[in-house]
Amino acid sequence: MLHQLLERVNKTMGFETARAHCDIPCKIYDPITAQLATLSVLRFLDLINELEQKESLSLADQALFIRLVNDKEKHAAKVKDEVRIIWGDFIKQPQIEAQPDIHALVHNIMMAASAGKQNVSREKGESLLSLVNQFAKHFWTFKGVDTYQAVCPYPPSEKLVYPLLKQD
Amino acid sequence: MLHQLLERVNKTMGFETARAHCDIPCKIYDPITAQLATLSVLRFLDLINELEQKESLSLADQALFIRLVNDKEKHAAKVKDEVRIIWGDFIKQPQIEAQPDIHALVHNIMMAASAGKQNVSREKGESLLSLVNQFAKHFWTFKGVDTYQAVCPYPPSEKLVYPLLKQD
Amino acid sequence: MLHQLLERVNKTMGFETARAHCDIPCKIYDPITAQLATLSVLRFLDLINELEQKESLSLADQALFIRLVNDKEKHAAKVKDEVRIIWGDFIKQPQIEAQPDIHALVHNIMMAASAGKQNVSREKGESLLSLVNQFAKHFWTFKGVDTYQAVCPYPPSEKLVYPLLKQD
Amino acid sequence: MLHQLLERVNKTMGFETARAHCDIPCKIYDPITAQLATLSVLRFLDLINELEQKESLSLADQALFIRLVNDKEKHAAKVKDEVRIIWGDFIKQPQIEAQPDIHALVHNIMMAASAGKQNVSREKGESLLSLVNQFAKHFWTFKGVDTYQAVCPYPPSEKLVYPLLKQD
Amino acid sequence: MLHQLLERVNKTMGFETARAHCDIPCKIYDPITAQLATLSVLRFLDLINELEQKESLSLADQALFIRLVNDKEKHAAKVKDEVRIIWGDFIKQPQIEAQPDIHALVHNIMMAASAGKQNVSREKGESLLSLVNQFAKHFWTFKGVDTYQAVCPYPPSEKLVYPLLKQD
Amino acid sequence: MLHQLLERVNKTMGFETARAHCDIPCKIYDPITAQLATLSVLRFLDLINELEQKESLSLADQALFIRLVNDKEKHAAKVKDEVRIIWGDFIKQPQIEAQPDIHALVHNIMMAASAGKQNVSREKGESLLSLVNQFAKHFWTFKGVDTYQAVCPYPPSEKLVYPLLKQD
After folding, report:
1. Confidence check: pLDDT of F168 > 60
2. pTM (2 d.p.)
3. For chain A, which end, N or C, has fewer CB atoms within 10 Å of the first or last residue's CB respectively?
4. CA B107 centroid distance within chain
């Protein structure tokens, strides 16, 4: 620490330049975490709807229902957090200019995730996934990475937008 | 639960209308939590700068420095969360139409809070507070509540935007 | 770090005095966060009681009931945390002497918040609010700040104790 | 759920009596968690003081110092939480009458845990442990369980108050 | 920090040796936290089963049921975390050689804790407790500390494995 | 709830079979979250080492160092959690038989993640990544999904194991 010494150094190299090249949390942004959380919301909606098909619910079914509602809640909140992080930390002026409706898209994701919390209908989960995939597509375009669509290799077997990476 | 019964009821009253009047987390939005977190960021910046004035730092000072950096981080993150909640849950089409730059303001708060994390200069905290106060002003306007400015009754003794409430 | 140097400094300025003027988490105490959390408990109780009025509950209603119970739980816990922080960090010997029943008041808040968790009757929430408002009043008195009562500008439209600040 | 049915039942058995025999979080209170967290605070203080003995600190030492300060912080906070839970949930009128200074003891623990956060001297950790052990002793007395003292079977090898259980 | 100086010191003392004697989180491992969390799972199962005995459930009973399911979930997760910490941080090559099935035991605990989350039958909790007690016994054997069994001094009054400490 | 009714249903359909087809958290396992967290650990190590190249560190650099150490800690902990979840919830008898050293691999990941917490050398991060990629490869093999290697599209530009999905 020793500020006498530091002050001298700071004067010569300058504070802002010293910081400019590194900016944690640091550039490892990937929309896959938001996409996975969205799939979970959809999956919990499916399981809730399976319960709804039953004629009556045992105490264990009801405990499962509670757990499904809770986990749906947590994952919808995670969607919001993960999207907000990329939006707030990665998206700056150039990205906004390239895609001026990015703010509205993110805001729609927030509202769709709330709808996913508040409802038990599958449609709400599907709308959320469609928006989050759209966000992923924009993200990879901002990064100059092409994308492809594929069915995710687990339930609920929905299509996700993935980055097209060069096999090594 | 007993779905035979429920189905009958659902058919008559309709699901969406049943949900419309209540929407948790439920309408107790208040920008004061974001404002308090912003004040904390500013306060930690002030205390960091007090440390900077010292000629050298004892081990206890250094431990304090670590704690200040950590707490600054946590409160800047809280600013983001609290503003995002109001933006995502309370602000809908009518508010966006009344204040079309609300998305850009919220995005600026995200970036200013990141700057508050990444820097130790007081100016970054002041910019953040100015934006968060602006957000608070919009919020109370959306609610139809007048506001006033006052110096907060604790350090760092900065001006906050408060709702003007009728004394009872 | 360099302890040879530091030791010399520490000997001359003394450790305790060096720390005395700053004590993080640092003096930005405000009972409003505990008051807001209490309002949320009350609000969730109201919404639970609205559900109770229905003849039967759809699956979506039941999901809402689960979310209301969970959020009530979380906010009652928050009341405890926020009050405990002010009590443990801000209230010291002079405040205890000025208000010797402050310990009992805080303990009553803990028990009332537990009751708010364990029950679904509105009265439990009202008792909690009354205690937390009382705590807020003591707090502002300790700080030498006058207070006023006003109906909070959101549901459940209950009276809160607010600090009387000089408009700027 | 079916409220028509429930109402009838509620009328006959009464709500309060139905709830009286079970009160979650439910009676598994044990001060050992607070005692363990206190030992951790002491241990981190010891490790910080080992670092202080070094002539200079490598970058890895400094990273360790940061981690020690953080973990000390977290465990001191845990002490507060765990003691607060027992105090707020388990200690009721009969315990307060049996031990009228229990409020002051708990308040002292809060202040000692804050001191443990803010300082790097071992003495602060020792004071905290002494208070927490005293709290443990009261707790077991309230429960009608005898106690003994033993050196804990891990660093920092301090004496803890343990319940005296019948071997089976 | 001053790396010129530090580099010199690092060369003479070596980095790895400097770190070898201290390894935070630092040696205060105690299976009691996993055991207490397991008892809580069992206790919540008991309380759920008490509810099951009732002819019908009031809204307050149902809220209690939700809270019990949630707390059971949280404590089963805690069992996993606490066991994983000891397994991942304390158990190294010598312990694995002394007890080659320790990995399988820990894996069984993970599966049993999941079963405790997913079910409402007491048997699942009892199996979990038996495994966690076994883990505690291994742990104390690794440490060279004898153990004894005793009924825990709170509900659900199950037998726990405790370390046999020398009274002081 | 109404147990008279439920009991009848339970008798006919059986409890265990009713639960067998769904097992939340529910089958959306993906090692990418553990891989991303590992990349973050590596990235923070790189940024720490950039700081080490500087002749001296400004207060802002030191604040950055603290943040890097903290974030490295958090992400190493996340690696452990994410791997533990897949291991504890997804890996059962058939997978263990197909890959008997899976327990040892997971245990090595726990120890490597701890080493990543405790050290500032890049090698520790590289070892962790190699193990986590190996775990990812096993996971996809268990699922019957082929994999490929590619450089991740962000810093630290390391090779990851990805599932080979059919483009749609």
Report:
1. yes
2. 0.89
3. C
4. 13
